[in-house]
Design brief:
Layout (H helix, E strand, L loop, with lengths): L4 H11 L3 E5 H14 L4 E6 L6 H9 L3 E4 L2 H9 L7 E3 L6 H9 L3 E4 L2 H10 L4 E5 L28 H10 L3 E6 L10 H17 L5 E3 L17 H18 L6 E4 L3 H4 L3 E13 L2 E6 L8 H5 L5 E4 L13 E4 L8 E6 L9 E4 L20 E5 L5 E5 L4 H5 L3
Helix pairs in contact: 5-6, 6-7, 8-9
The chain binds pyridoxal-5'-phosphate (PLP).
Length: about 400
Amino acid sequence: MFLSREEAFGLLSQFGSPLYVYSEDILRARCRELREAFCGRIHPSFSIKANSNAALLRMIREEGIGADAVSCGEIFILEYAGFDSSEIFFIPNNASEKELCFAAERDILISADSLSQLEAIGRVNRGGRVALRINPGIGAGHCDKVVTAGHATKFGIDPALCCEAKKIIKAFDLKLTGVNQHIGSLFLEPGPYVKAAEALLAIVLEHFPGLEFIDFGGGFGVPYKKNEQRLDLAALRDGLFPLMDSFTAHYDNKDVSFKCEPGRYIAAECGILLGTVNAVKECFGRRYVGTDLGFNVLMRPVLYDSWHEVQLIKKEEDGGCASAPLADVTGNICESGDIIAASRPVGDAENGDIIAVGNAGAYGYSMSSVYNSRLRPAEVLKTTEGKFRLIRAADTLQSLTASF
Ligand SMILES: *Cc1c(COP(=O)(O)O)cnc(C)c1O
């Protein structure tokens, strides 16, 4: 953890509980690590649905990383954070013509997720550039909800329809500049990603000459459990580079570039979620540590059964016992499924202690809600100089009624 005990308590008393805290050092390290691993041959773009805080986006942009957006709201935030149209790739699914216009008017490249969307892009942007999201038929991910390619998912264009796609592109005088795919989220072994890249390259060789770029997608995992192995970026690179070499040797455009779309990998590990223990109880033999970390604040454990490490930070220094009893860490939402971490050795918690949740930087705040009319927390950045800066204010009671 990048916070001391004193810092954690100081932050909660200054900014309120719960609170998201991010480390600039870790965020920048992840960006650099990715860029260095791929030696400038695969350009990472940050998938901002993982974390769309403008302060973090500015740092990611400073690190030379582009951005992928899945909605007009994300495009709007990216512009606010200083991204140029040419640095944004719009990968929506089931977008309305109004949304497609929003991107086209800004000259942002749009990827079509279906032939029907491709026609809609043709109607709103006749003669413009376009990309295609291909489903290579291979998927991967930590649970079924995040597998986004293969034979049973709503995403991407079936390669069997490539000829149809080409007809539509011709009919609307579109220029196909690239293809992308995204096989799913959170893989820790390079195998499926490399296989899917191989499948995509074969499809491009067969159907799509003259592309400017090929985008292999995101899904790079991070170890959520202490003992999990990190994704071996060098092994991923060593799987991809030979495929890219042999592809380029056979392809007409020798200057074709390659991209990837990591979200989680860049943002997850730089974030910690801090919450406060408000109640501790024993009920029919089970122990519960009740906190203000409801699933409106961090949804992943409830939505995906995800594991996050939790650490108890005691009010009193050296207050914890070495082998604490197991307890469920629960939130304050009125649903029995509101458990952030089950059976963890934090049973010696007392009111006023802090629970720190690790790897909360991706799909944390960005998935938060005001369910139960609870306020979304503030976000704070720990800068490289060791200073703390508020980068998003918490909701207020007034914000709950502002849109009535
Ligand atoms: C969500 C998403 C990503 C990023 O996924 P991660 O698992 O966070 O890397 C990449 N591409 C597309 C199209 C996405 O929707």
